[in-house]
Amino acid sequence: MKTLVVACLSMFLCNLACETPPDPYARPVRREAKPEAEPVVEEAPFVPPLETAPPEENEGLPEYMRPRDSRFSKKMWKQIETSGDEFIALRRNLHMVPELSHREVNTSRSLAQQLEPLGYKLVGPVGLTGFAAVLEGGPGPTVGVVVGMDGAPVGETTRLPYASRAEGYWDGRKVSVSHAHGHDVEMAVAVGTAKLLVSMKENVPGRVVFIFQPGSTRLQAGEGPGAQDVLASGVLSRLGVEVLFQMPVDPGLPVGRVGVPTGAVSGGLTRFKVVIQGTQNRICSGTVPWKCVDPIAVAAHLVQELLLLPSRHFGPNRQVVLNIGRIEGGDADHTVAAGATVMGTFRWLVPTDMNRMQQLISRVADGAAKIAGTSVNTSFEKGPQHQVGNTAVLMWALPTLVRSLGRRGVMPGDPLSEPGDFSMYQKHLATAMLLLGCGRSSRDGGRRGEGSFSPDEETVVVGVHVLSNLIMDYLHDTGRPKFAPPKNEAAPATDGPPARSPGNTLPPGVTPPAGNTELK
Questions:
Q1: How far apart are the first and last CA of the chain?
Q2: 3 state DSSP class of 296
Q3: How far is residue 167's CA from residue 153's CA, in Å, rounded to a whole number?
Q4: CA 107 – CA 213 distance, rounded (Å)
Q5: What is the pLDDT of residue 278?
Q6: What is the SS3 string spanning 42-93?
Q7: C-alpha distances in angstroms, 324 versus 337, 352, 416?
Q8: How many Cβ atoms from other residues are within 10 Å of residue 116's Cβ?
């Protein structure tokens, strides 16, 4: 025992002697505490206020925003709660298989196969792939809903298990395709609302028309907007549609809220293309660039000058946005390109700003060409223009929105960055665009029109709730604003799509959606 104690004491003294003495000149080490990770706050699921909202909730509201009474709101919400998972599953299925503008063949067929067994009469084709689904109720007015079907030539980067892996051809190039504008949500909301209205058919005093429109946002060169096809088909006038709603998604608004735009609903869009000529002769090559006009260098200088135009010529309240989306030029890395092309878009709210931007782009392009000693060809293509919703329809919708979402659920809406072609309808009938919130403060859902865009899935449930209440209230409200259907100025729809551009035919072996027949 004594020997063991002596051995342990010897080991302790040895370890003590072997330790490195502290350095008196060493700087003290600061040990900062690691910040604790912020807990993820799970937001509560959406629950509509319905008639259970406390009386003080509506105190101070102006008379035109007082919630409108409804006999069906509670009943419809119970059915929506039961079928919510089904609507979300439908949205996921649509999300995985997007198709480019005017090529939504499979999407159209899938929607038709779901609606026709429910008793909807399918009218069309409208354009190349579109159609209208009609629910006939009792005598009464006719309300329409426009739904975009097209995907965008944007690769999805969300890494979701149901992310799109679809591909297509855009201006001759193979591209990835995704629902970057949220049309999958729009379609799921429309189909969910259509199914809900079927169960309420005995209480539908009128006609409900869902118009599934192709080519509503981004179009390829030489193709026209889908709204033009809908108007040309005459389906709106023949069905007697009095008012037309659209509910695009807006990530700038949280789930459970709806934006009501005032003034300009969306910015106008104009596409531009600058073609730069290079030197085309035998002595011009990459080994003697001083003997050539290099269009790539001119394009690089031009891009820098163009991107400065909005900030140097327009104030922050004018909302002029310019984007360079594509640059082409050159055949090999050891030669000087024979030409280069710069393509992009700019958006605006005031028509005078559109004219001024066209003048500035042309002037900058001509100046760059003059400095380089070459020539350019600048062209512009008029895209969708800004729109102002029908004030009477928007004012009428406010009491329904307040009842459905609460007073905090109705907000002013900002202009959309991707306007679409909904503005074409307002020249023919009363229209109203309502922006459906799809954002969450606890997650980044990306921006509309980009590959990272991922709207919250509960948006589908909220959308069905809002749209079904709007439709039922419009059909039942005797004090609604009265509008006349559009005049049938166009030729009636035929068995094929209206002429728009060469090659506007269905692919071999593909048939229109089942049941697409004209309304008698």
A1: 112
A2: helix
A3: 8
A4: 11
A5: 81
A6: CCCCCCCCHHHCCHHHHCCCCHHHCCCCCCCHHHHHHHHHHHHHHHHHHHHH
A7: 20, 21, 19
A8: 16
What dihedral angle (degrees, nearest 10) is formed by the CA atoms of 107, 108, 111, 117? -140
Tokens for 127, please give them.
Answer: 């354009």
- The residues facing 133 across adjacent strands are 122, 210
This model's pTM is above 0.90: no
Q: Locate tokens 């709204």: which residue?
A: 227
Order of strands across the sheet with 435-439?
A: 249-254, 435-439, 258-261, 410-413
Element (H, E) at 18: helix 2-18
The residue with greater pLDDT, 47 or 416, is 47
Q: Pairing between strand 142-148 and 167-170?
A: unpaired
Q: At residue 375, does pLDDT exceed 60?
A: yes
Buried b (16+ CB within 10 A) or exposed e, 63-72: eebebbebee
CB-based contact 154:449 (threshold 8 Å): yes
pLDDT tens, 383-419? Answer: 766 666 778 898 999 999 999 998 888 988 876 766 6
Compute the distance between CA of residue 514 and CA of residue 500 in angstroms, rounded to an integer. Answer: 23
- Whether 340 contacts 298, CB under 8 Å: yes
pLDDT at 516 over 50: no
For 5, the enclosing helix (H) or strand (E) is helix 2-18
Q: Which residues contact 129 (CB under 8 A, 6 or more apart)?
A: 102, 103, 104, 105, 107, 108, 149, 214, 512
Q: Report whether 213 contacts 423 (CB < 8 A).
A: no
Q: Which two tokens stand for residue 178?
A: 């995704």
Tokens of 163: 């992310």
Q: Where do runs of H (alpha helix) occur along 138-245?
A: 183-199, 226-233, 235-239
Are 134 and 235 spatial neighbours (Cβ–Cβ below 8 Å)? no
